[in-house]
Amino acid sequence: MNAEPLGHVAALWRFPVSSMAGERLERAKVFASGIKGDRTHGVFHAESGEIAYPGRDRRWSALPRAFSRLGGAGGLEVSLDGRNWGRAGDPRFAADLSAFLGFPAAIRAYAEDGPSPRYRRAPIHLLTTAALRTLRAVLPGSVIDERRFRPNILVETPEGVDGIPEYALRGRRFRLGKVILRGTIPCARCAFTTLAQEGLPEDREVFRALLHRFGRDLGLYCEVEEGGSLQHGDAVLQPEPAPA
User: Fold this and answer.
1) What is the predicted pLDDT for the residue at 211?
2) Phi, psi angles (nearest 5°) of residue 200
3) Of 20, 34, 149, 160, whose CB count within 10 A is highest?
């Protein structure tokens, strides 16, 4: 691996429940399946079994304003306001969530023989601050925040780096701390990026810009080639140059 740094880990994110806000971590264990506890559960219509799809169906559009995290003992905890937390399996929360959405809803764990996620592209989603700056330059009146894009890893790149440098990692192995990833494909975006979250207003211009100026993509999906521990501040090393 080349010792030249691309940047450093500025933030680590875990989203225990798909479509709900997640939790920012100081350190994380990374396995072949991704960050431990990430996107293990989903929100479903309690009667039809339909999975939440906030970016396409407005019935689910409030979900990004709710929160999920793993408690100290590793149990899934959820909140509708970010202050009052309860267990995901508590019937009282199911009732509150249903009232919040306006129809019967339930949180269910994904399983091979049970509910499955709407899509599963890759175990890790990486985004650089350079990519955010590039989008911000196109949309100076919008609030461009990493939470709109739900990366597992946000890489801080030097101020002079422009464009979307993570695309240079496609098909390449690179190291972050004790972890080795391989970049695969750009992350295709949907209207989820426009939805309101805590501190972020609804903004339909975000997806319009992604669609018309960025080919709908922003950020990079990655496979985990060697797992390990990762923490805030770890260097992200560029891969060695490809053979001539």
Assistant:
1) 97
2) -125, 120
3) 20
